[in-house]
Each structure stands twice: as structure tokens, then as C-alpha cells.
Specification:
By secondary structure, the protein is mainly α. It has three helices and no strands.
Length: 96
Amino acid sequence: MNPWKPIALCLAVGLVASVGIQTASADKNPEPPSTLTGGPCDGQGHMAAAVSLLSQANQQLQAALPDKGGKRVEAMGQITNTISTVQAGCRAGGSN
């Protein structure tokens, strides 16, 4: 396995998470926006923001053409798996 693939994925997830944290902390209202309610992350602002940002990233990749040597499709699959993992964390409980 190419060691750069997991490194790139971790960096991409870290970037998305840091943007989500910065966005959430810039908002003085601790409640998630209405567009982020519903689903397993309802009431967990940071987790809901992460799911939202990951979904937006997936939409951007879907709009990108051409396939980029299979990497675009691979990245979309990894983002879909990451969204599922975050949602599983939301179902596990806790706050924010």
C-alpha cells in the first residue's frame, strides 16, 4: 500500500475538521444552524458541522471533471466512509 494515501486522507480530514471547528467557534450561537439539524448529529454542533463540510467536499468532487486517474472517485468513497464514521460517533453519544 502506498503510504501517501493514508497520509493524504488524514491531512484532508484534518483540514476539513479544522475549518469546521473554526467556523463553529466563530459562531456565538452554540446551537447548530437549522440546516445541520436532524440525523444522528442533531444537537452536536461540531459533529454536525463536520458532516456538513464533508458532504460539501463530496459534492465538489462530484462536480469535478475528469476522473483524475481514479483518485476523485477514490476520494469520494473515503469521504463517504468518513461521514459514516462521524455519524456513528454521534450515535455513540456525548455532546458537541
